[in-house]
Amino acid sequence: MGCCLGAPWHQDLALGCTAEECESCWPRSPLLLSHWDRLQYTTAERRGRWWREKNMASGKVGESEPGSPAEAAEGSPDPSSVLLAAGEGFPPEISLFFSIESRSSRCPNAQLQEAARRKLWALESDDRDVCALFKELSARLLCIQAQEDRFLLAFKTLEEVWKFSTYLTLGYVGRCLEQLLFEQEHWLNCALVEDTEIRVSMDENRLAAIYLGLLLQEGHFFSRAVCLPEGKGGEGLQLCRNELIHVKNTGEESEWEGMSLLTGQRSLLPVTAIEPVPHPFYQWFLKNYSVSFSISQEISGTTSQLIVKGKCTATVDHRGAAWDELSFSKGDSIEIIGFLMPGLPWFVGKSLSSGNIGFVPVQSVNAEPCKSQEKELVFLSEEENLPLLRIPCNGGEQHFATLLGELAHTDITSVYRLDGFEPRAMLPKAPSEAVLHGCKDNQLLQSWEEINSLVTASTSEQSSPGSESAPATWEDILLDKLNDFDDPKFFIDLNAGHMEDADVFEPILTFLNQDSYMPCFQSLYDLSFSFLNTTFYGFSDEDELVLYLETSRNWAKRTHSVWAHVRLCFLLGKLCMKKVKFSQARVYFEEAMSTLDGGLGDLPLLAALYMNLASIYLKQNMKNKFFSLLGKMVALLVCLPGRPFSSENELRVMMYVLREAIAVGNSPLEARVCFLIVKLFLQLGKNDEVLPFIEHLQCLCTTLLSPDSSAVLLDATPILSYLYDKKYLPNIALASARSFVPSSIKGAPTPIWRAGFILQNSSKLLGSQLERSSIPALACSYLKQALHFSCESRAVSTQRTLCTVLSQLYLQHGVLDGAVCYAAQAVAVSRLIGEEEAFESSLSLGWMYLLSSQTGPATDIMGQLLHSLHGTDSVTQGGVVHNLLAIALKGAGQVQKAAENYLQALHKAKETGNKRNQAIALANLGQLSQSCGASQLSELYLLRAAQLYAELQGSQELELESVHVLLWLAQAMVNRQRMEDGKLCYELALVFALKWHNVRSQLCVTEALCHFYSQVCPSLQACITYHEHRVSLAQKLQDRELEGNVWQTLSQLYQALGTPEALRQSLDCTKQSLRIFIDLEETGKAAEAWLQAGRLYYLLQEDELVEMYFQAAIGTALKAENFSLAMDLYEKAGDNFFNGSRHRDRAVEFYRGGAVPLARKLQAIKTELRLFNKLTELQIGLQGYEKALEFATLAARLSIRDEQDAAAYFLLALAAATELGDVELQGLIGTKLANISRAPQGPVDMPGCATYRARWLSEGGHVV
């Protein structure tokens, strides 16, 4: 067959088919060489540049290369130049751009884009997190270019390109960037989260060039034939267009070695005759799953025909050539059993006239009346889809239900609470209005009255006689109840006398001789050899069973029990395959096939026979026998939904069929076989091997199904998420789980599974930043969807759990209104469950009210709970309520009642012997005493509480509580001037916080120590040490604002040390704060940081940088049009020179040229007066007396309404006139002074007196 010319390769993929037939053959999956024509020109141009540079180096300037861009402009580019150029110099890097858009409006979100850009600016200086993310995505980060919203990436291997392009197609790259760039506050705004996405884009041609270059570097790959000029092929090698070829680079520029996968022939091929297979998965699969057979040509590429089911009409008369083929007449109606797959030669059909079932040749029927599958790829039934939806037990529904239960667990009914202390809460900066609105707009959050009415209605509905009771848990809804049934069992009796008795074998022969499939046969055909345990018993080893089955087979032959004979041969063949005796197994399977003489009553048996026999032929290289089975075997393999697997060896057959589908471009067949491979891998537990196939299947389903198709889209993201999690790819696992859309398929993962999985993996991303019990904000939206699902399914217990978790989430992130709202919802749901649950939820709600400073509602709740406990023996619960009630009364200012309730709580704790609760009650009493000014009493209570905690040491919760108590005790001791004891308490509190790696507790204690060493007991070195620790804590919490402020404070502390080394460290701290304030767009703080850096350069005597930093500070304020700040900065910059010992004259330009004009513009009279005073003093000091006199006169004119100020400025003028020796002017100024009552007098009778003047005027409001 000669080569085919004409349409481009991607429009004609099936062997021997026309361009019109094959326009839709090839999958529109993410092909890295899909823009081959443009890539040809790009790489040819690169080749041209290389050729010109080479000629210039050798002096051959005018010589042009073959296939140059000039020639390419006249015709199509030369593919050889494409391949060679890509191989010699493919682009080493590629840009990934991102944009944040609204899903509803499809418009950019400028605010979030700017916020993400700022986050990237911050990450530019420390890009470890970004590098780790892209490493997980199989890319190498070269640099971040935040201003251009892009990342510069590189790839070094084909696998990296393959994996990254897969993640790109599945949408994981954008979701991973969302997880990186969006702040915690964003995830709390659920409406915004659902409407926002990050879209990413890359230059596809450049990515294709990288892929092609890496492919050529590897030296051997798979290609398709494009065209082959006559006389250029090797002897005997004939190629057709799109034929699959394995190519090896021999080092020649024009010809490489090629082997046809159709014929197996080898020869040298022109480079112009080939184009690489575009998808990396195909290259990987064809290399790793090679077979010795060539392509069979039994399967063809797809045409415009779709996958169909239903009834079709015979177009010709047909008489079956074999026992398994259906005979029919023209016009007969034939029902398709399963599906009819385009490109396959056979399907299984049933004649509606005769009722017979058999194989039907596709070309003999008209399938137009059939119902098409609307481009559905794998035509899954719900039952067939379940293996992809069922997650292993350690990653399934029950696992995450347990996780949610652990997060919702609280000890509030048995453990007292310290006043205002919640270890898992971040009592915070005020959240944005959008976040507050987001926690109130959920349909589940009604007002308290509506919740109560909902509870009443639900309770009456449950108690009504005819109503169904609501299930207690969601598991009751989701889990199937298995039906037990008894299959026939046969005792293996190998007694010699019985072996010749036909009656002994009659039961098994009768059982196996059914001419149709029975459910009890399933254990005979399945993958796990379950018949060894379910159907036969009484044998000691498999050899005894084989002997029994052999004897049964012989009796089946004698009695002409055809179906029993076939099934016994099949069982014997399976047992031989289990022992790796393939030749003996082949004999049994061939005997079974030859014994069957009519009808396909047992399709699972026939499919198992075909598959097992084909796998043996393939393994033993029996090419002709394998090809004789292939057409019908593929029909049984792919067209019968729900067919169970019978052997692990089926994998080998499916790999061959997938190879054929790729070779001919049959996309539906490729997707279907890929699905079956995934299903079998999962059934065998080969999770490491399944990942490439399931990713490819998801890509096919994502890209091949049109958006408006009504077909059910296969969603393999649950199992993908599980596999990524097991490979410890937390970012990708989280992105995959977030992509999952729960369905109504019974047994499929629910929103509860998704919420639990996201919680688990987002916690992994946080790492050691937060405590183990933290609930990441990213899970908020998914927890709400899980709550909505549990409400719809009336899973009350799960509703309560999720409400509690959401309340804890909002509490931890400082949205106290949201915490109260969901706590109230938990109370409403708890009333449907029981009194204990309602009591616990009510206590939690009251505690939320107290933390949000709503003492009124908290007091009401505690009063009701206390009343409900009357007459009960719940001592501990009574103590808990008294303690919380006391906290509420203290907040309301009722100190006496608060003290009484604390004492009641203490008494009940002593009654039960609970030392922890005693310690908490004592600590709360101590804090109450402290607030009343009773420092000695406070110290006694707190000291006793600390002693009790010392006895209870050992658990994290206890020691974190003791941290809070020690802080109170330290403050009490400081108030009584016991500094050393206070310091000891502070440092002991820090030790406990460090012991448990609790970042927030460490921060609280460190802030107290910073205050102690700066204000109470000053120690510059200790203050520096604790501020440095405070910086590290701010970094762990990713609180950029706090970090910037602490760096600024640390800079001032180092500056106070005064040594050159300390000044350098101060400068470094200032630059750190400057970088952060720029990222946060804190204009004022950034300007102050620029100014501070200039001051430090002045102290370090690096004068060339001083004015540059001063001007940057002023420019920052002017750019923001903050003229008041700019004026202040001008003055401070001038003060730096005015108070310094060098370059004092430079102060003039900052005062006179900058600050004064702005003061006049802003009408800041006092500032202008102060500036003129400084200018006067400065000029006197510089002996510029005329200028000094001028500035003093201007100041005097400005202060004409204030006699005291005017007198002061006249004195300055008098001093300047004295220095000038101008007697007339001195007299005139003296006269002015005489007219001012109570004018201050100064020593002005001799030159130089002005230099001794007190500088109280120039100081003004600033420390100069």
TrEMBL record:
Residues 307-370 form the SH3 domain. GO terms for biological process: regulation of ERBB signaling pathway; regulation of intracellular protein transport. Residues 56-79 are annotated as: Disordered. Residues 64-77 have a biased composition (Low complexity). InterPro entries: SH3-like_dom_sf, SH3_domain, SH3TC1/SH3TC2, TPR-like_helical_dom_sf, TPR_rpt. Keywords: SH3 domain. PANTHER family: SH3 DOMAIN AND TETRATRICOPEPTIDE REPEAT-CONTAINING PROTEIN 2, SH3 DOMAIN AND TETRATRICOPEPTIDE REPEATS CONTAINING PROTEIN. This is SH3 domain-containing protein. It comes from Callipepla squamata (Scaled quail).
